[in-house]
Amino acid sequence: MERLVVLGGGESGVGTAILGQKEGFEVFVSDKGIIKEEYKKVLEHFEIDWEERQHTEEKILNADLVMKSPGIPDKVPVVVKLKEKGVPIISEIEFASRYTKATIIGITGSNGKTTTTMLTNHILKEGGLHVGMAGNIGDSYAKMVAEKDFDFYVLEISSFQLDGIVDFKPHIAILTNITPDHLDRYEYKFENYIASKFRIAKNQTKEDYLIYDADDEVIVQWLQKNPVQSKLLPFSINRKLDEGAYLENDKIIIKTQNNTIEMGTDALALEGKHNVKNTMAATTAAKLISIRKETIRRSIENFQGAEHRLEKVLKIHHVQYVNDSKATNVNATYYALDSMKTPTVWIVGGVDKGNDYKELMPLVREKVKAIICLGTDNSKIKDAFGNVVDLVVETFAMDEAVKVAYKIAERGDTVLLSPACASFDLFKNYEDRGKQFKEAVKKL
């Protein structure tokens, strides 16, 4: 019996353990931290051996196969030792894909992947397909494959998950964009991160498709130097394309295999240029799976966006409060500011991942009337924008930040939480940060 060791007892780890056991592996789950109660109950229900607060080497190094959760870096001692022994280390995405014959749509990118994943899933569901949504979002992909294997999977895939693939191959891959993010995991080399994202197309053949942003210089240049096998379907909001999706007179036009759909952008439930792009990517994928034009139209009109992503919370005294806590990097915040149509009070800050705020300068000059810093160290934000914005206030708790915003904002303004940073200094994660914002707004 082959031994499968799962490092990390979270959503993907426990899902992998369940599938591994079903497929006849002897399974052991090891977590350096504490495993949540709900996951312990699941492991005990399936009688799977587990440990927490430690990695016992004699129980790990004898593995035939290791699934490493995406949050665990390669530099961890036990991972280094496994590599030295030549034990294969894969991601959940790789493991689960070996046990399903479903058609896979894989979505990656620095920003927009959650919205694109949710929208693609929504269109396929509305089209009556038997579809599961998993990966970096919601439920474990491996657990889905174990319990109710679907005909189609829409997977949101992070670069960390792609680092652990060997044969994984989506029939349709979507690459939303590539901007510097998580460089601390890639030796601070942008090209390592780009290469990681492009692994999504590494095993594709000419029967498969790669949908990508043709306005993204990083993607276009990489493809010129590193051609892929798959059929390319670009999308653009700047120019007309022979094949793919583009914008013309406020209409989205999608051309695939001698077949054209047109849709007015006024029908989109989501605002902002970046959401036009997310919609182009999702609808191109749906079109390749032969979803009917009417279904696609209806789906994009009634789609509810992702929580914590430009989410309208409340309007109080004619001031709109918007929760964009999921903006954990500069590029995501760029999209948020770009979609603001009114003077903006901007709440920003947190754990800086090596941010360069220069690209936000023109938008901040044009749209931001005040900045409220929310982090334990706000010096970089104050240095960047202190001369551009009249009012910069420092706060150290969400309640305080929201109260200050309430005082500053006037009729017709927008208060925007779009931190451009990770959340770990003051919050558990970006969801916690977004929930605290929404609660503070409701208390006003």
Automatic annotation (TrEMBL):
Molecular functions (GO terms): ATP binding; UDP-N-acetylmuramoylalanine-D-glutamate ligase activity
Stretches assigned to the Mur ligase C-terminal domain: 308-421
Keywords associated with the record: ATP-binding, Cell cycle, Cell division, Cell shape, Cell wall biogenesis/degradation, Cytoplasm, Ligase, Nucleotide-binding, Peptidoglycan synthesis
Entry-linked InterPro entries: Mur-like_cat_sf, Mur_ligase_C, Mur_ligase_C_dom_sf, Mur_ligase_cen, MurD
Biological pathway: Cell wall biogenesis; peptidoglycan biosynthesis
EC number(s) from the headed UniProt entry: 6.3.2.9
Annotated Mur ligase central domain residues: 107-286
SUPFAM superfamilies documented for this protein: MurCD N-terminal domain (SSF51984), MurD-like peptide ligases, catalytic domain (SSF53623), MurD-like peptide ligases, peptide-binding domain (SSF53244)
GO cellular component: cytoplasm
Residues that coordinate or bind ATP: 109-115
BP terms from Gene Ontology: cell division; cell wall organization; peptidoglycan biosynthetic process; regulation of cell shape
S-adenosyl-L-methionine among keywords: no
NCBIfam families (alphabetical): murD
Family: Belongs to the MurCDEF family.
Known function: Cell wall formation. Catalyzes the addition of glutamate to the nucleotide precursor UDP-N-acetylmuramoyl-L-alanine (UMA).
Name by which UniProt lists this protein: UDP-N-acetylmuramoylalanine--D-glutamate ligase
